[in-house]
Structures are given as C-alpha cells and as structure tokens.
C-alpha cells in the first residue's frame, strides 16, 4: 500500500458493563477517500465514532491519526488535530443563531476564545467566512435564525456547516442524511461530493443510495465486529452481508 | 393572592412572546441606556434613602450575587460553596489591612486575588462534575475551609473573628461612595465577560458541552476560568464586606452565606446580571427591616420568598419583568 492512511484503528474494543459494543475492530481509512460504515442498528457504528473522536476511551486497542497515536486523547484535542464530526442526533446550541454557531466554530479553529476582556463583536471578523459556509450548505438566508427555530433538515445542514468550519483533514459524519426528504438527500450528496476534495471522509450511513454515490470503500459492522470490507459493489454482493441484512430467510428464497 | 399570580402568569406570557426584531432593537438599546442611567442615579441616591451601612451591604451582596449568576446563568453551574471565596477574601482583606496597613482598595484587591487563587484547586476538582454533584463538591470544600478558619484561631481569631479592621474613611456614608467605583468596576467586568468571545463559548458550553468539545473547546478549562473569574467577583464583594463592617466573622464562610447569595440570584433573575443587584437590594433591605422590627425568624421569610419565586416566577424579578427570550 502506497496511499498514506488518514485514520487507523487497531484491535479497537469498547465494553459497556460487560457488553462488548465494539469488538476488536481493525479499520484503515486511506487519505482522501470516502469511507462508509454501514450495519444494522446496534452494530456499534456510533460507538466506533465516539471512540475515534475521543468521546469514549477504548477498553483496548489503538487509534492513529496520520500515523500519530491519539488513543485516549480528549475530544477537544482530537478536534484540534484536524478531526471534525457531526452528530447523529442533532446537537446544536439552542439559543444561538446559525451565524453565531459558525462564528463560534471558526473561532474554535483559529483561537481567541479566551478573551473575556474583549467585546463579542470580535467574533464578527469571522462573519464573511461564516456566510460562505452557510450559503454552501443552503442556509444563506437563515443567518439570523436561532438554531431552535430551524427545521430538522436545516439543523442537519447547520451541523455540516459547523464541521466544515473547522476545515478538518478528517470529516466524520454520523448519518448526515438521517430523516431527510429526497430533495435534501440529493443536495447533501452533492455537497459531500464537493467538500471531500482534499479531505478524508468517514461516514455512518443507512441510506444505501448515499453510500453507493459517495463511498470509495465500505466497512460493514455487525454486533461490534467487522463483517466485510470492500468497494460498494463487492460488499453488496458479499454472502455474509446479505445474510446479515436480510436474515437467513433469504437463502430459502434462492 | 390569585389576582397577583394571574398577573405574574400574564407577565410571563408577555415576556415569552418574541418581540418584533428590527424596529424594536433600537428602542431596546435606548431603553437599556435609560435603565443603566436610572440604576446609576439610584446607586448614587441609595445612602440618602437608607442607612449608609445597609447601602454598603447591598453593594457587597450585589457583587456576590453577580458572581453566582455568572456561573449559574451563563455556564449552568450551581455553586453552593461560594462563601469559601467571599469569606476567604474577607479574611485576607482584613488581615492585610490589619498587619500591613494597606489602604482599603488595595486590601480588597488582595482579598479578591486570594479568592481567585483558592478557586484554582477547588475549581479544578469541581468542574469535572455537573449539576448536583458540582454543588456538593463546592459545598464540601467550603465546609472544609470553614472548619480550618475556625480551628486556625491564631490567624483568624476563631469564633471571635477578626476584630477592628482599620479603615481610613470611618463614616459609612462616605465609605459607600468610595466603594461604589469598585462595585461598578466589578459589575462592568461581569458584563464584559458575558458579552465577550469567552462569554459566547460559555453559553455554548452551557447549552451543549459535547458539541463545544467536538469543536475543539477545552470545556473543563473554560469552566475553570469562569469559576476563577466568579471567585474574583465574589472576593471583591467579600473584601468590601470586611471593610464595610470593619470586622470579619466566621459567618462569612458559613454555608448559609452561600445559600443567601443563591436566593438573591434566584429572586433577582438567573442569567440576567441585573438580577443580582436587584435581588441584593430587595433581600438586604428586607432583612434589615425585619431585624429592625424585632422579627427574629428572618430565614423563614427569605426562604418563603425563595420558594414562591421558584414556584411562581422562575425567571426572577428581572427575568419576568424585562427579559425576552
């Protein structure tokens, strides 16, 4: 393999009171690719995300970011090393406007959050870039709207704008199209296709048309283990994957 | 009774309704300046209308309440041990005034800085917890400091307290005006913090700590910084309190002191900043009036007010009357 690896997990496991949510997962994400994690509910996808971003500490195993060991680092440290994530359950700051959200994210990336002796107007220097990002995700008109007042699909879009504001090397998207209508899904596919340039994207996704359209590589998880890995076409034809998804009943149908 | 609660409900409903934004904002800005001017005039008049000693006391508690509000309203952390900072600063202020003869503004500053330093270890351990656990950790530390102050009587005077703290301005009426700039400075600092890039991060942390961490903000360290700033403000209040009374008692470290500060903030309005001074004026004045009329169960009344506030208008006086959400 000559492609450098952006993100690597080796023998990654996580227990919750005796229940093994993630079980000895090995994952290699090549730099510049879109890598999808799929699997049924409870397969450990979100737990794996939380491990990769430092929100959970692994019970065992190791995580490398561009060759650097980041196992056990807190989430803010992982974020500052160039990993941005979105959350599956929309996770915003209710009382702040869309514009304030993105300004805050841009400040996080560029520093200055400690200045308690300065006016918060200082955040406005991020405004031009914030507007660009909001326009990019289709929220150009909604800069002044409080996050609580946005519709579900728009909250998802704001999630994405926040992650992009960090200009991350690695972008982790937890079900970016969950709960979206067809039109929004199309737009999100197009958007991810655009922002993946120069980045590595890892995404958890249930919608197979999204995976098919974007993913260079797919890892299928089941019960915390890697069931299969390969291109979308390979994985889709994989006997074990078909069984896992459709149940053993599918054999009877053959 | 039913009439007043209906009125309160109506007020809350009105406050809840989102206002017309573009035209209203200029009006609101002007209204804000008017309110500020009115508050300054009121503060300048206060020692004419009250006993100057009571007026000084209101100033001290206003700072203390704003310190609590900074944590409770803007970081979502309820400290139940802030008497540790108020009282420690009171003792430190008294001691440097007695032993080094420092003039009162410097002595108060020394006290506030001592409180800030004390906030480093306590805050470091406390900010790892939230909710009731945070409150309990701060309370536990405050109780420890109370016990230490009680036992270390060679320094603190134990149960006798620190007697006869020297003060150049002996008349309380003039002392009030000498203290006022310090109080305005402290209140301005609190306002600046809330409306700063740092304050924006605090609100984000309050609303969604996980999201703030995912953006790269070191949440614990931001909370610790807010805790230290809050301790500094509480220390300013405590130092002035020591100079105001020319005496420091163990009561400044007692948990009931922490409780009174919390009651003041809840009554005035959490997360409003204005609520602190307003609640302080109301509670201190009321307590003074009650004790003057020979009523001994003061706690019964303030406690009753606290319960009514929480039950009937949770956003406090300021929040209910003025704040739009």
UniProtKB/TrEMBL annotation, chain A:
Presence of the UniProt keyword Transport in the record: yes
Superkingdom of source: Bacteria
Domain (ABC transporter): residue spans on this chain: 7-248
Keyword field: ATP-binding, Nucleotide-binding, Transport
InterPro entries: AAA+_ATPase, ABC_AA/LPS_Transport, ABC_transporter-like_ATP-bd, BCA_ABC_TP_C, P-loop_NTPase
GO cellular component: plasma membrane
PROSITE patterns: ABC_TRANSPORTER_2 (PS50893)
GO molecular function: ATP binding; ATP hydrolysis activity
CDD domains in the cross-refs: ABC_Mj1267_LivG_branched
Gene3D superfamilies, per the entry: P-loop containing nucleotide triphosphate hydrolases
Keyword Oxidoreductase: no
Entry protein name: ABC transporter ATP-binding protein
Organism encoding this protein: Rhizocola hellebori
Automatic annotation (TrEMBL), chain B:
GO CC annotation: plasma membrane
Compartments (UniProt record): Cell membrane
Superkingdom, natural source: Bacteria
InterPro entries: ABC_transp_permease, LivM-like
Stretches that traverse the bilayer: 31-48, 54-76, 106-125, 132-153, 173-191, 224-242, 262-286, 298-317
Membrane topology: Multi-pass membrane protein
Molecular functions (GO terms): branched-chain amino acid transmembrane transporter activity
Claim: Transmembrane is one of the keywords in the record: yes
Keyword Magnesium: no
Pfam families from the UniProt entry: BPD_transp_2
Keywords in alphabetical order: Cell membrane, Membrane, Transmembrane, Transmembrane helix
PANTHER family: ABC TRANSPORTER ATP-BINDING PROTEIN, HIGH-AFFINITY BRANCHED-CHAIN AMINO ACID TRANSPORT SYSTEM PERMEASE
Protein name: Branched-chain amino acid ABC transporter permease
Originating organism: Rhizocola hellebori
